[in-house]
Amino acid sequence: MQITGADLFVKALQEEDVDTLFAYPGGQAIDLFNALYGVKGIDIVLPRHEQGLVHAADGYARAAGKTGVCLVTSGPGATNLVTGIATANYDSVPLVCFTGQVSTNLIGNDAFQEVDIVGITRSITKWAVTVRKQEDLAGIIKKAFYIANSGKPGVVVVDIPKDIQQAKKPLFLLGGGVNIAHADQEMTMLAEKTQVPVITTIMGKGAVPTDHPLYVGNLGIHGSFAANRAVSECDVLFSIGVRFNDRITGKVSEFAPHVKIIHVDIEPASISRNITVDIPIVADAKKAVRALLEKCTPLDTENWRLEIQEWKQKYPLEQQQETEDGVTPYSIIHEINTLFHDAVITTDVGQNQLWTTQFLELNGQTRLLTSGGLGTMGYGLPAAIGAKLGCPDKTVVAVCGDGGMQMNIQEIATAVVYELPVIICVMNNGYLGNVRQWQEMFYNRRYSSTCLRWRKSCPPFCSMPSDNCPEYTPDFVKLAESYGAKGIRVKKKEEIRPALEEAAKSKTVPILVEFIIDREENVLPIVPPGNPLEDMIMGGTENA
């Protein structure tokens, strides 16, 4: 099992019996200091300036007859050691000086606090080296102590880039490209082999089974708390087949600002188009995943996975949506999960789509078809018809909202004449729900042109539904029956399963099940427009 470079650093010091470390923290050494936190047997001495620090290490080495050990950050932290390094080296004092450094991909680009400390000190040390690979770190540290003390003693400088110290919180981000490439089995194997957690976009959902212990959830403005938090807290984001659109990034300038991003995509123009990445890889998703499977080794991600699991338990999606009574989106999708295990599920666009992608379980057999990139209302029903024609032996379920359903409702006729028993689930809240939710939360409840019960005789201003609202038009049950389909209306939670079971019995006739849900049911969590992903509204009084 691999451990982080920072943990290797501590273990290497312990192997060399280092009991005193003269150290001054900084950004490019912060992971080393984090790994040292609470470590027993190593006393950390914090002087008030790096030059004083190295002279103190020099005095310690001369007086105690041991190797003096220093740790500072990059840039000025490193250059402030130079006089002390020269002083000790000329007097043959054994010192090992560790300096933080910017990430390897930034070296040579005049990055913030980047200096070539190896080049600066080469003439005044016995050996100066930059660690280029994490697997070389332990060996280099052992060699450093040997050189500092062998023959004529002197000074060794070991420069450790920040990315060599890290990679204890890796994360896979999978997009629709993984599903398009049919790389789901290989991707699951890769996640299992590396023990790296997985998050997905809406289009990437199902690339790893949603009940897999490594699967975290969907990312984005309606993503799960754990997925959004994970992408903000990880240190390496390995994204495959992702477009990084605004629905998954939130505020672009604050999307994973401190994370090294590796991006695999078959389309070169998609890489660094919206989010600048550190390592671009132009490749087919399946070929890339297979190549990784051949090269990768297990990672020690136990603490990271436990941290993510705590977030999932504290802020579960079901807790934000489920209520004890009434028909809820979660209760509808939960019953679909329970009853249909080898199905094709299509969605329309709006709240119905978001609830489905939050709660639908995809385990390698059930497939999800949705308009992810363009967000086309009216997609759900005709897509279900096409899916049934293409997969006649599979159960096909269309999940629609009452608004999107009306955009292509005439296609019930197509399902009837071709004798296609598609199951049409309409979540009816009487609104264009997604826009209404934004109006409620961000526009002072100004419900402009979103109420589908509106009549010309209604008051000019309306900010909430009431008992006096007009009846809904159309009557979906009667309309389905007029086409020759069957209609079922569900108003109580206990009616959900029987209605779906009845629909599943049909062999040649499409069944429309209308679910009457709360008119102001919201999709939660939600990231307010223009905010970073970690600024989520969770529901109730709990915000994160």
From TrEMBL:
Residues 348-514 form the Thiamine pyrophosphate enzyme TPP-binding domain. Pfam families: TPP_enzyme_C, TPP_enzyme_M, TPP_enzyme_N. Its EC number is 2.2.1.6. It is an enzyme of class 2 (transferase). Its cofactor is thiamine diphosphate. InterPro entries: AHAS_TPP, DHS-like_NAD/FAD-binding_dom, THDP-binding, Thiamin_PyroP_enz_cen_dom, Thiamin_PyroP_enz_TPP-bd_dom, TPP-bd_CS, TPP_enz, TPP_enzyme_TPP-bd. It catalyses: 2 pyruvate + H(+) = (2S)-2-acetolactate + CO2. Residues 164-292 form the Thiamine pyrophosphate enzyme central domain. SUPFAM superfamilies: DHS-like NAD/FAD-binding domain, Thiamin diphosphate-binding fold (THDP-binding). Keywords: Thiamine pyrophosphate, Transferase. GO terms for biological process: isoleucine biosynthetic process; L-valine biosynthetic process. Residues 4-119 form the Thiamine pyrophosphate enzyme N-terminal TPP-binding domain. Transmembrane segments: none annotated. One of its GO terms (molecular function) is acetolactate synthase activity. One of its GO terms (cellular component) is acetolactate synthase complex. The keyword Transferase applies. Belongs to the TPP enzyme family. This is Acetolactate synthase large subunit.
